[in-house]
Structure formats: C-alpha cells, structure tokens
C-alpha cells in the first residue's frame, strides 16, 4: 500500500511538473527557446516514470516473497546459543512446541532452520538438488580430507562419480555376497568369546556390539592387509581415532558460529582436530602403502577383492579425469566414511534395541519365539533368515524410532533461496531435520514414548485421526534412508 501510494504520488508530481514546465514555456522570455523547454519536460516525465515503475516492481516482489520462519529472539553477536541445552535435539523439540514445525534461530552469525514435520520434509525432498549439499563444519572439512568423501563433497560431477564408485564397485550384491563368509566368521567368533569368557559375568553390550561391527567392517575394507596381532592392533588404533573424530565433529565450535573468531581457535578444537587427523591420515596412508607393496603378485579374482583393492584399482587408472578414476584423498575419504558411518550408528542401534528388549520381557519373549519357529534352537542365524524375522525387524525399527543414532541427521545447506511451507529458507542457511521430534510426535503416534513393536495395538494416526498401517513406513522409512544413505545420482534422497 505504501509503495502503491508512493508510485501514485510520483505520477502526480510528474503531471504537475509537466504542467508547470508548459506554463514556464508560455511565459519564457526570449533567452529560452521553445524547443529546450519541450526537451526538459519530456526528460522530467521519463525520469519520474522510471522511478515510479521501479518502486512498483519492487513492491510487488516484496509482497510475493515468503517471510522467514518464526523463531526465538537471541542476544547480539551470540544469538540464541546461551539458551540451548547440551542435547540439541531435545532443545529443538521444545522450541518446536512454541514456534511450530518449522522455525529459525540465530547461533552466532549463522542462521539455522529446524524442520519437525513429515509433510515439510517431503517438500525438502521435492527440492532435492537445492538441498543436496551438506553443511561442512571445520572438523568435517578436515576429517573428510578437504571434502573429498561422499558425505561432504559438494554436489556435482565429482560427488556423482564418488557415489557411483561406492554403490557400483563397493556395495554391489556380488561384492557383499563374497564377504558373507567373513561376516559370519566374525559373528561366530564374537559369540564364542562371550560364551567362553563372559558366562555368568557382566557384559558391556555396547562395547561388545561396537567391537563386533568395527572388526567386521574393517575386515571388509582391508581384510587381507593385516592379520593376527598386527590386525588387532591396527583395528584398535582405528577405533580410537574414529571415536575421537566423531566426538570432535559433534562438538559445538565457536569458530563455525562466529567466523571472525576462527583465527583465534578459542576452544582449541581445531588444534585437536588436526592432531586427530594426522593420526588418521598416517594410519590410512600406511595401510594403502602396505597394500601397494604387495603388487600384482597377490592379485585375486574380482569377487574376492576387498574394498581397498577395488579403490586402488580405480586409482591406478592414472587419468583422474576419467569417469571412474579417483585420487588418493578420495580413497582415504571413502574409507573413513565407511569406517565411521558403518560402525558407530549400527552399533548404537543394536545397543538400544537390546536395551529396550531387556526392559520389555514380553517383547523379548516374542523375539525368542519367532527365532525358535523360523530358525530352530539347534541352528545358527543366517543372513537369509532375516526377511522372515518380522517381529525382530519391527523391534529394531521401533528402537530406531525412539533412539535414532543421528537425531538431527546431517545438516543440509541450500544452494539457493527456497520456499518450504509458507516460509523462505535463504541460501546458505543450515537446515536440521529433527527426526527425534517426528518420531515422538503425539499427533502422529499413539503413546509415542512407549516401546511397541506390536503396531496392531498402537498404530500411528493419519491427519484425519484414522489408524493407518502404512503411516509408520511413510514416516520412519524415509528418515532411515535419509540417515543411513547418501543422495541419489540426481542429488536427492535415497
């Protein structure tokens, strides 16, 4: 309205100016020529009209642009940072109750947007290319070898190449089937150790699960490089460095929130990150060099190759511009992604599942009954049994719902302004998907805080209050894929 009024006023001024000029032209003395007055009048009218048109166009654009999401007010310079608790996902869930399913907050000099609604998450997926990039913290940039991995590589040709290599060359069915015996051997050894050494004694199940998963993953990565005590020592070193890197990447860094203070490294985090990175780089580089020293004399069939050998074969192409050739840093980045992403999240989910089953004896009894019926008491569990263990799968999904390994997933960073719902998410903002809040939303789940693998007793409700057996999968399954996977080749979610 203000813009429109201003435009009208400018038009009136233009008209008045024209009339005044014509009057001046009639009253002009002989020193001023009639032609000069005509030019003056037209120049004035054109100039004022251009300004009025620009103001009208700017006003229309302002009215059409969606506003930023609502959010809490913060303090100057540091924003809302002092008011957040230790557990960000819980603080963000509380804020969602006050400001709605999408809101903004300033932490330092950076704008953050938190989304806590399945319908809004689907809109984010509809703009998959815009949200393809992940926000790289200082720690992530260093640990990922300068964003030379799948998790933090900027979306583009290089990212598509890395993901294609990972999916086609490393995670193919033939490759996974070839390593089945290796996985089975590690599981059998772990169970045997528990039976022989821990019978009647306390067992740290979290440590047990982490050791089992990490040993299995590391053997799949470079199983033929180190054996015996050397292999166990190497695995122990890698586990220690991986744990340190995960802690450092999850720690809040003032340098990320207030970039002008980055050079001072007030918390000393960057120095710690560089120390951890040097240890990680030294370990991974030594493994790669040891494998290269083996040379071609130890070549094996395609299906018998471990993942490291597959990557080295691609690296040996020499032409890094080729479709599938990768650099040394990209090899290291993929290996670190596999180590960290394949161990901590999986072992955490297993630990929470066992903890919930131990707290709910009825559910544990049903799992035992299903195992007896499908497998039998005298047989070992094999991977081909898993599709038939429906109740066990439901128990794992329910534990994942209550205790997601990454409650805020990995933050995204839009490459352009984008409208989600009724609000604009500006380019460069950091976007959190609060899976924790959605998994515990009472509007979506009956008794959301209870562990209920039996969905026939408490199905989630749709928007009309009806029980919908498919809603559980429509909410949980995309979030599982978002957390456990990267993006599809065109930049979206798996």
Descriptive overview:
This is Cytochrome P450. It comes from Linum tenue. The strands form 2 sheets. Strands 1-2-5 form a 3-stranded mixed sheet, covered by helices on one side. It has a two-stranded antiparallel sheet with strand order 3-4. It has helices at 2-27, 34-64, 88-99, 118-126, 138-143, 157-170, 173-178, 180-197, 205-222, 228-250, 254-257, 269-294, 307-315, 328-359, 361-374, 390-402, 435-439, 471-484, and strands at residues 102-107, 110-115, 418-420, 423-425, 430-433. It is mostly helical and 494 residues long. Helix 9 (205-222) runs antiparallel to helix 14 (328-359). Strand 3 (418-420) and strand 4 (423-425) form a beta hairpin. It is globular. The model is unreliable at 1-15, 20-26 and 456-494 (pLDDT under 50). The protein has 3 domains: 2-64; 70-135 and 390-494, no CATH class; 137-359, Orthogonal Bundle (Cytochrome p450). The longest helix has 32 residues, at 328-359. It is built from 18 helices and 5 strands.
Quick take:
The chain crosses the membrane at residues 37-56, 202-223. The chain is mainly α and 494 residues long. Helices cover 57% and strands 4% of the residues.
Could you give the order of strands across the largest sheet?
1-2-5
Low-pLDDT runs of 5+ residues are: 1-15, 20-26, 456-494
Can you name the CATH architecture of the largest domain? Answer: Orthogonal Bundle
CATH class of the largest domain: Mainly Alpha
CATH superfamily of the largest domain: Cytochrome P450
Average pLDDT, to the nearest integer? 80
Give the count of structural domains.
3
Proportion of beta-strand residues: under 5%
Largest sheet, if any?
A: 3 strands, mixed
- The string of secondary-structure elements, in order, is HHHEEHHHHHHHHHHHHHEEEHH
Q: Globular, elongated, flat, extended or rod-shaped: what is the shape?
A: globular
Helix content: 55-70%
Radius of gyration based on Cα positions? 30 Å
Number-wise, the strands total: 5
Q: By helix and strand content, what is the structural category?
A: mainly alpha
If you consult CATH, what is the topology of the largest domain?
Answer: Cytochrome p450
In terms of quaternary structure, the protein is single chain
Count of runs of 4 or more consecutive helical residues = 18
Q: Give the N-to-C terminal Cα separation.
A: 46 Å
